[in-house]
Each structure stands twice: as structure tokens, then as C-alpha cells.
Amino acid sequence: MRPDLELIAALVGRGARVLDLGCGDGELLQHLIEARGCAGHGVERSAEGFHACVARGVPVTQAEIEDELPELGAGVFDCAVLSSMLPATRRPARVLRDMARVAPRRIVSLPNLAHWPHRLSLAARGTMPASPSWHESPNLHPGSLRDFEALVAEVGQRVARRVLLDARQRPAPRALGARPNLLAAGAIYVLEGGG
Questions:
Q1: Cα 41 to Cα 6, 8, 45, 72, distances in angstroms
Q2: Could you read off the pLDDT of 90-108 as tens digits, one per residue?
Q3: To which H or E segment does residue 94 belong?
Q4: Is the pLDDT score of 134 beyond 50?
Q5: Which of 35, 148, 13 is nearest to 84 (CA)?
Q6: Which of 164, 160, 157 is nearest to 179 (CA)?
Q7: Contacts of 148 (CB under 8 A, 6+ apart)
Q8: Pairwise CA distance, residues 56 & 34, whole Å
Q9: H or E, element range at 189
Q10: Using CA atoms, how far apart are residues 149 and 161, in angstroms rounded to an integer?
Q11: Among 27, 67, 82, 100, which residue carries the largest CB count within 10 Å?
């Protein structure tokens, strides 16, 4: 399992009712169910990811996150997870609000576009820092950690915990905490409130 998914699993804990939004192939959700005794359900839009979840025996619905969240009852889950998918949503603020309605605890991870190598690439080359196929990226709202934290406050939620990530998606050294928006490649947030 990817290092960031291991960190997310540890933050979810044991025995929780978990909603995994944009669950991909279901690796995280399968781990939560089998190794941590969680009850879980995934939402995945791609047919490939949906079928991979089914093959793993992971409960999943094939749908867009923004279409499925409003259909879920309030407080149905203990924890909702959104791993690296917020920039790909059409209305991130609405997604965060809907997540708060369905689960009192949310875990959101995201890359940091303001990470120093990205800034250097933009300054030196004059092009957006991304893979050669940046125009095919699903990201509609790329942003920085500072942008995300401002959005969290705007929707009336609070950051209960933040884990900064290095470029290998592992916990970053504490020294990065001095300038996280510049030095961290990404972060995992635990959000509370706003429900």
C-alpha cells in the first residue's frame, strides 16, 4: 500500500464506518475492512476502479463524488476519506460541506502545487509543473496547502490534525513545518466541525 494510504488508515483507526470517496481500486478500503475491522463503502467513477473494487470484494458504488454525496444520509458514517481527489471535483467547497454532513470526521489528502520544485519549474521554464500530459489531468482546482486551509475555514470547518508529506508521500521531517506551503509536497488533513 502507498505510504500516504498507510497514514490515512492509521488516522481512520479501528472499527469505524468509513466512506472512501474516489476509492480507486479499493486498496485502502479493503485494508480498512480486513485489517482494521471497519465497515466501509467506496465511491468510484471509473469503470476500471469500480471493477477492481468488486474483484477485491469491496462494497462500492460507481458514481461521481458530487452526485453521490447528496444522496447519503446525515451521520451515516464515522469517517469520510477523500484521498487526492478534491482538486478533481467541480465544487470543492460543496464536497467538503457534504462530507461534513455524512461524517463527523473527515480525512482529506492533497498535493501541494506551491511546493518549491513546482515554483522553480514555473519560474525557470514558464510552464505549469506537472507531467507531460498536464492537460489530461483530472484536476480542475489545483492549489496550495494555504489555499486548502483557507477553504476549510471558509466552509466553517477546522483542521484537527495535519500530516505534511515529502515527495515520496511519507511523513515529512518536522523542519518542513516552519514553511509547509513551500517545503511540503502534500498533506493529509483531519477535519472536524461544520456538520
A1: 18, 16, 14, 11
A2: 899 999 999 999 999 999 9
A3: helix 92-102
A4: no
A5: 148
A6: 164
A7: 86, 108, 110, 187, 189
A8: 11
A9: strand 186-192
A10: 12
A11: 82
Could you report the per-residue pLDDT of 137-156, keeping only the tens digit for each? Answer: 555 556 789 999 999 999 99
Whether 24 shows a pLDDT value over 90: the answer reads yes
Fold for 3-192, please state it: Rossmann fold (3.40.50)
Mean pLDDT of 24-38: 97
Where do the structural domains in the chain lie, given as residue ranges? 3-192
Q: Given a cut of 90, is residue 74 above it in pLDDT?
A: yes
Q: How many CA atoms lie within 13 A of 15 on its CB side?
A: 0
DSSP 131: -
Could you tell me the three cell numbers for 26?
Answer: 479499493
Q: Compute φ and ψ for 161, nearest 5 degrees.
A: -160, 145
- Please compute Rg for the chain using Cα positions: 16
The secondary structure of residue 113, as a DSSP letter, is: T
More confident residue, 79 or 122: 79
Q: How far is CA 126 from CA 74, 84, 120, 129, in A?
A: 45, 25, 9, 9
Q: How would you classify residue 177: left for phi > 0, otherwise alpha for psi between -120 and 50, otherwise beta?
A: alpha
